[in-house]
Amino acid sequence: MERFKGSLASYGLTLLMPAFFDALGVSGTLRVERGAVRRQFFLRDGYLVGESSSDPREHLGQVLARLRILDAARAATAFEASEAARVPLGTFLVERGLVERTRLLEAMEHKAREALFDCYGWQSGEVEFIPGLPPPPNRVVELPRLGLKELHRDARTRLREWTVFWTLFAGPGTTFTVRREFVVETAAAEEQQLLRLAEQGRTLGELLAASNEGAVHAARWVVRLYRRGALSPRKAAVAEAGTAPGLAEMLAQARSLVEAGRYEEAVAVAAQALERAPIPEAHALYREAEVRLTVALADEVLALDGRLRFEPLPRPLPPSLTADDLYLHAKLRGSRSVREVLRNAAMGELAAYRALRRLMAAGVARVNTEQESSTSGGPARTNPYGLPVVVV
After folding, report:
1. Distances (CA, A) of 66 to 41, 83, 107, 359
2. d(CA 349, CA 221)
3. Half-sphere exposure (CA, 13 Å, Cβ side) for 319?
4. Model's pTM, two decimal places?
5. Average pLDDT rounded to a whole number, residues 142-155
6. What are phi and psi of 33, to 5 degrees?
7. Residue 47's beta-bridge partner residues?
8. Residue 254 contacts residue 269 (beta carbons within 8 Å)
9. 129-141 pLDDT, tens per residue?
10. Residue 379 dihedral angles phi and psi, to the nearest 5°
């Protein structure tokens, strides 16, 4: 491909990216810039092989801390030491044994994916493609190849998610009324933090900026709290079922699904109704279906605790795995409890459980036999890739 430069207002990544994965063997640097943030994505033979960002929130040390691969204090100390030694941070962490190479690659992949996904939502700024790649820095740990087609698929899914989000809420200046009677006693720490901020009159923009895991995770928590009726936009008028075409039918369908024990479908229908208007009955149906679904999943999730083994990710990555699946994989590898991770996943316990099932179908996670679980005595090892396996 030839050199290209244009405005994101006319040439967004949703439009441009197919040209990069439809063409054969594209190599070069894709630069995307808006305001003070400048990101570069390095492409080789049609794959993403590197990424850099000027945004300090996207520093590798912060990503490692968010994924609980390395605590924040040690990450800061390691960064200072790597700067003094003039060694890239990733290389320094691996060479000093502070982070396993496989965990570092997971963090680097997550960092690159999230940076690219964010750029899909930019409607202003500049985009430029420069053919050819600069030589990599000495001793750098390189990002494994990431398929552009799969990244484009996940980025479009994320973009649709944000479209729904901003349909629900008027803008970043939105404030909320809090109804704690609709919050379960076992609410996650992220939920409690968002509720406290909302009670203080903080805006939606401030709520999104408050999450240690990033805006998309905060947005997912906000949406779930809204669907339960725990967070209500202050300027939104409460609607009646008969005020919008089709709402009464959707509520009747959700009620029938709950009565039939089809809780997963009931949650989806109630959520669709709430995208159109904040209807009290829809909130109530959503809460009931979500609670019953969580109870229905509890036994199966409990049966997995302590028996799951997580293999290092194969290369290239299976196309069936989404960005959320890979994020969950990283979180599970750093946790002692499957139940805890699924219960506290911003995507929701059901979505997290589905992601876990996809990891199992791809062979990245597998269930130990009872004998293996009783004799493991600690983190086991296998060597399909010559790398450690984590038992959770």
Report:
1. 22, 21, 9, 21
2. 12
3. 6
4. 0.83
5. 93
6. -135, 135
7. 44, 147
8. yes
9. 999 888 777 778 8
10. -55, 125
